[in-house]
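Can't attach files on this board, so I'm pasting raw text. These are the components:
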Amino acid sequence: MTYVKPSFRHPDLPKNDLGFTKKDYEGAISTLCGGCGHDSISGSITQACFEMSIAPHRLAKLSGIGCSSKTPTYFLGNSHGFNSVHGRMPSVATGANLANRDLIYMGVSGDGDTASIGMGQFVHAVRRNLNVVYIVMNNGCYGLTKGQDSATADVGSISKNGMNQFQAIDLPALALELGASFVARSFSGDKTQLIPLIKAAISHHGFALIDVISPCVTFNNNTGSTKAYDYVREHITTADVVDYVPPGEEITMDYPEGTSADLTLHDGSMLQLTKLAPNWDPRDKLAAMQRIYMSRAKQEILTGLLYIDPNTQDLHDLIGTVATPLNELLEEDLCPGNAVLEEINRGLR
Amino acid sequence: MRPTDITDPEYFHKVVDCQYACPAHTPVPEYIRLIAAERYTEAYMVNWESNVFPGVLGRTCDRPCEPACRRGRVDEEPVAICRLKRVAADNKGDVQAWLPEIPLIKNGKKVALIGGGPASLTVARDLAPQGYEIHLFDEQIAGGGMMRSQIPSFRLPESVLNEEVNFVLDMGIHTHFKTYVSSLHEVLNQGYDAVFIGTGAPKGRDLNIPGREEGKANIHIGIEWLASVAFEHTAKIGKKVIVLGGGNTAMDCCRTSRRLGGDEVKVVVRSPFAEMKASPWEKEDAQHEDIPILDNHVPKEFVVENGRLVGMRFEKVKAVYDEKGKRSLVPTGEPLVYIEADDVLIAIGQENTFPWIERDLGLEFDNWGMPVVSRKTFQSTLDQVFFGGDAAFGPENVITAVAQGHHAAVSIDLYCQGKDVQVRPSPLTNLVSQKMGIHEWTYDSIVVNDDRYKVPHAEKQKTLRDRKVEVELGFAKDTGFKEAQRCLNCDAQTVFYTNRCIECDACVDICPTSCITFTDNGEEDDLRTRLNAPALNLSQDLYVSDLLPQTKRVMVKDEDVCLHCGLCAERCPTAAWDMQKFLYSTSKASNVCGVLQL
Ligand SMILES: Cc1cc2nc3c(=O)[nH]c(=O)nc-3n(C[C@H](O)[C@H](O)[C@H](O)COP(=O)(O)OP(=O)(O)OC[C@H]3O[C@@H](n4cnc5c(N)ncnc54)[C@H](O)[C@@H]3O)c2cc1C
Ligand SMILES: Cc1ncc(C[n+]2csc(CCOP(=O)(O)OP(=O)(O)O)c2C)c(N)n1
Ligand code: SF4
Ligand code: SF4
Ligand code: SF4
Ligand SMILES: [Mg+2]
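---
Top answer:
Structure tokens for the assembled complex are below.
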């Protein structure tokens, strides 16, 4: 009887700039079903944060309810975390972000948590351009409650509970419509694509959605499901290959004219995009919309970085909050004294 | 790379590092689990089947298995494999029922064994159950060879040795003790179908420097002196003793001297301390008994006054290495060092000698005076004569003598049955799933974090007073259990079924030691650089699958630091991984007991 993860690790594990190994970014052993796509996404988050040398205490994980929302327990065990109520992660994230704008916020949700009960919250977090990474572990069903169809299940997709007849919500398309500044789609089974996307999302200043197709092996990995491993692998297409270049490092890869685009992000990191379709610019929202619709019509699953606006203003910029995290404000800052009060009052007279 | 052929018995055998490193390929994890299950008798028999002297080896083995132990690659220290063997031996019950039956009606073939050490006894053990009539000759008063004459009682009690020697001799072996064989020619004329020579490397090297002749009354050859102590011809030594040499014989000489009246015993060795041949634990034990080890001292002369040895002079040197790493000992130029001594023991090496083998029999010897022997069959150039143990290729150790005895017995059996000795029978192997439930295996797959446990020692005052008091006490049952739990069960193999894999990455994500990678295939050198953790240990294989059904990549597992924790198999939704127990038993002349079929 096991179910205890040994504490030994590979003796030659590489160390990052902080002197940490990947072990320092792991969490508790997963209790999800073996083979669940969500675990791979946890693995990708762990790897991305390790490679970016993020100090674990500088990051907060936020989630709602669902198998997907349980995953923050299984990665970044040394970071902050808040497991909130079903569908309410966006408002908790908003509150946390307003209180301390200096942390990195990693929001993790499911398709049920986001596209059903949490839809009202999700759309407002997007339109406010809240500075969070928002990962949807999208399996087209409510895994935790035994696999009922979710609002992202495709019309005609068959799960263990039967065939879905209702129109699917396409979260990237919706996010684009609502003004999201970073929109990507990926697949849990493709870490080479997902890890750079997570890094880019962390570096992005503003709302960064990554919709990750993540098969539920237990309830939705059957023949006829459009979210099964084999179906996804057969229908996946890639818009662009993202190469993440951390701040201070140089781009080394050379590409022929017109096939690649370099973007500089808020924190100085660079994205080198190798475009798989000519004349495709991920900053062109209209083109992104069009490509999403076109691939859907062809029953293709379009993945990669679909849209980015590297120079947006996030919620703090928009409403002009104080630059210091609230917990660092001193009494002098909060109570500047009678003279300042007088000054304000004078302005109101 | 081409997909790994796991039907090749050597592939998984190599994964069981300890068993692979053991010259006799003892199924180590199998007996360690039996110890943990308190099935000491079966644990003992698993050993006995392979190495014939579990009680002896559990105390004295050179333990090549331990440096090989996988645990040593992830943890500070390997499993105390050798001392666990002793736990089985100390706690075993009656083994009579397990011992092979010896046929009353013989097979008509007669074999002579010259020498009664572990090599010959192994040949006897393997051939007797097949009905061979076996005659064993030794000049000593009892069987055991150097296990009796050289290994001191404080490391190996006589009762332990006697029991295990007798398990063999009681198989109806015709023993001829106190019989020195002075002519092979004569033996060959006595109508034996085959002759096995296991006479060891019986000659101690001498040191001919000034004063050797004059001081000879108090200068002794180490192995001759140890034998004379063992057979109770010598019971005392002077107060001040110098032991020359840095090997295990020197360690036994100095420690024995401490027990026979030597108060100031010093080991003096030419090489630097770190390069001494003695095992680290032997050096430790000697130092613990207040014996200083003076390194970098080259003996120059024995100093004799009034016809009596009074001391020795040494030249101080330092080790210098050339660009090829070759060492030379260069004098430091300091004045010679004088050390007082009442007695000196020379323990600077052993040699083979075969004065009793005539050189005109057709049995070839090489330029170094060693018989020409096949490393595969142990046959000499005289078809009916076989060699094994220290006599075959020079001094080694007990477990090597046993392993060679097994090979020689196979050859003798083939030869006597008129078969080709080159065609060796294949090893016995078996691979069986250990799954009992989703998170349940037949073995304790949890990897414990415990550090290696220390074997308790008897009090020094007590052991130094009597050379027959055993120093090591052995693990108590409960510590033995805890040490047994440190074993990683390397024989629980990770077996991969390519066509079941859906490439969900569950195994990759759970694997604590980052052994598993799914990637595009390539040549080995290239693949080793593209894995999830660097695969730098080239002595460990990569397990490579066929092309995977969905992405046409391959699964590559670096066997190096796999903990055999079974988590990959527990997390796999399609049972593409399974933990399967791999049993490997070298072929022997007879399947002596059915213990491995448990
Ligand atoms: C001091 C010392 C300590 C050692 N300690 C260890 C240890 O801790 N662990 C370990 O594994 N190994 C140890 N060894 C090595 C080990 O004892 C030998 O490698 C092993 O015993 C070799 O076995 P064998 O069967 O080849 O021959 P041996 O054990 O040497 O047996 C040969 C026998 O043949 C007899 N013989 C020789 N010639 C004739 C003849 N012409 N006629 C009749 N009989 C003859 C000899 O009397 C002897 O009994 C030690 C060796 C020495 C010297
Ligand atoms: C307020 C509330 N309503 C309903 C539930 C029951 N419930 C728990 S998880 C879940 C759906 C989760 O689906 P999803 O977010 O897709 O997560 P998954 O398990 O598929 O990863 C539901 C409906 C709940 N916990 N709380
Ligand atoms: S039920 Fe589905 S989503 Fe939940 S852990 Fe199992 S496989 Fe993953
Ligand atoms: S048994 Fe499997 S999970 Fe455990 S260390 Fe080995 S490969 Fe990794
Ligand atoms: S867990 Fe099983 S199915 Fe999943 S990738 Fe590993 S071997 Fe393949
Ligand atoms: Mg879901």
